[in-house]
Amino acid sequence: MKACLGLSVLAATIATAFAAKGNLPPVTVKGNAFFAGDERFYVRGVAYQPGGAADAADPLLDLKALARDVENFKSLGINTVRIYTIDNSQNHDEGMKMLDDAGIYLALDANTPDYSLNRENASTLHRSYNEVYLQSVFATIDAFADYNNLLLFFSGNEVINQKNNTNAAPYIKAVTRDMKQYIANRQSRIIPVGYSAADVAENIEAQALYFNCGTDDERSDFFAFNDYSWCDPSSFTKSGWDKKVETYSSYSKPIFLSEFGCITNQRNWGEIAALYSEDMTGVYSGGLVYEYTVEENGFGIVKVNADGNIVPNEDFKRLAKAYKATANPTGDGGYKKDGKASECPSESDEWEVKGTTLPAIPERATEFMKEGAGAGPGLAGGSHTAGEPSDGDAEPGSGSPTRSPPGSTDSPQGAAAGLDVPVRFVGIIAASALFSAVLF
Q1: Which of 21, 99, 184, 256 has a CA-to-CA distance to 250 between 20 and 30 Å?
Q2: Is the pLDDT score of 413 beyond 50?
Q3: Crossing angle, helix 93-101 and helix 63-76, to 10 degrees?
Q4: What pTM was computed for the model?
Q5: What is the mean pLDDT of residues 219-230?
Q6: Cα–chain-centroid distance for residue 307?
Q7: Cellular component terms, GO, for this chain's entry (predicted)?
Q8: By C-alpha distance, which of 384, 408, 386 is closest to 183?
Q9: What CA–CA distance (Å, rounded) separates 224 from 201?
Q10: CB contact at 8 A, 283 and 236
Q11: Spatial CB neighbours of 142, under 8 Å, sequence gap ≥ 6
Q12: What residues are annotated to the active site?
């Protein structure tokens, strides 16, 4: 009896350790597309950061406002929201459940304004890539990884925003590598990690190639960019989107628009019909409208009154109509099932990145891979001048996981065949086994 009880406790503990939160199926990457189970997944969403960057706060913690906004999300017919800033020191169960119940996934930026790369110059860029920064990024991963409706993480947003600061690219790629390794080592599922780029005409194609070249551990799982080139009145060809589809036709990873919605003229949202048509779905996987609330920049689709009530504007109404009129393609949308890494772009006046070498992960941050990141710092403090930066270059492949990622058929050196237990659960399981033995 005691032995049975002990085994029951052990089984329950293991089940709890691996328990995912939410009813939505986790989204995975297959070829150049996202899939929810066996069904092609298209991002149909909005950027959601009430208050804007100037008043960065965590919208998942204001449950009253979130409940109000979720009703509007359902009216729009979207399946994804992008959030740029969250407080990784807080619990998000209620907010994430609210989204999950509404059928909505979260695309989450892993950085906050004070825990990010500082691109001001080469010195500040190097200084800001330190273990204090990575501890915050990893803590954000820990805080959200167990939610099924966590769609993906952005490792950065518009860090390269002009043709003369492409020297930031190796650091962005290093952060992507570090996040992928941390997820593979410490979480129970693989979560896509990629970059949200500014559509800088001189180097956007080089960015796409760069983040998909090199060894597998450092390649992004997707490439996203903020595209405002469709300004009504426009069309698939007038906007130049046909040329972009052609440019990325052989790209082997999912591509989607992490922001879109030009406000030069009235937004009639003709790009919705184009984006989810088979003219584009062989290459693109949808996109995110910028943005939900009206801020000083004038992009929003709802206005928040002083009393907290929401008033949808005409942009909202036209967008809801466009989404309702546009179904996803049937079948797989023409996605490419396989592909290969891109060729790394050559150094030029518009791409000031020499070779493929990346900075090594800061020495003190390597401990997080084994011990975990611990509690997140939240929105207090900052990392730009804290901690110890990287002190050298990384060897190619050094960011590979030290255990087999979930779903992988490969076993890392030294790993027991067929064993795939996240490091953070080993102590829990061992303690439970000991407790079971004592009961016996």
Answers
A1: 184
A2: no
A3: 20
A4: 0.89
A5: 98
A6: 33
A7: plasma membrane; side of membrane
A8: 408
A9: 15
A10: no
A11: 88, 186, 372, 373, 376, 424
A12: 158, 259
Instruction: With CA atoms as reference, report the closest residue to 208 among 249, 178, 164.
Output: 249
CA-to-CA separations, 370 to 35, 143, 184, 407, in angstroms, rounded = 30, 17, 12, 21
What value does the CA radius of gyration of the chain take, rounded to a whole number of Å? 22
Q: How far apart are CA 424 and CA 440, in angstroms?
A: 26
Sign of CA dihedral 130, 135, 136, 140: positive
234 CB-near residues (< 8 Å, 6+ apart): 270, 271
**pLDDT for 421 beyond 90:** no
Centre a 10 Å sphere on the Cβ of residue 54 and count the other Cβ atoms it contains: 8
Give the model confidence (pLDDT) of 29-43 as tens digits.
999 999 999 999 999
Look at 78-92, 256-270, 295-309, 313-327 and tell me which has the smallest mean pLDDT. 295-309
Rounded distance between C-alpha atoms, residue 9 and residue 437, angstroms: 11
Domains defined along the chain, listed by start:
30-325 (3.20.20.80)
What is the rounded distance in angstroms from the CA atom of residue 180 to the CA atom of residue 255?
18
What element of type H or E holds 63?
Answer: helix 63-76
- Return the pLDDT at 402: 82
Residues facing residue 83 across a β-bridge: 108
> Mean of the pLDDT values across residues 55-75?
94
pLDDT for 405 equals 52
Cα–Cα dist 417/185, whole Å: 16
CA-to-CA dists, residue 269 to 224, 228, 259, 263, 320, angstroms: 20, 12, 13, 11, 10
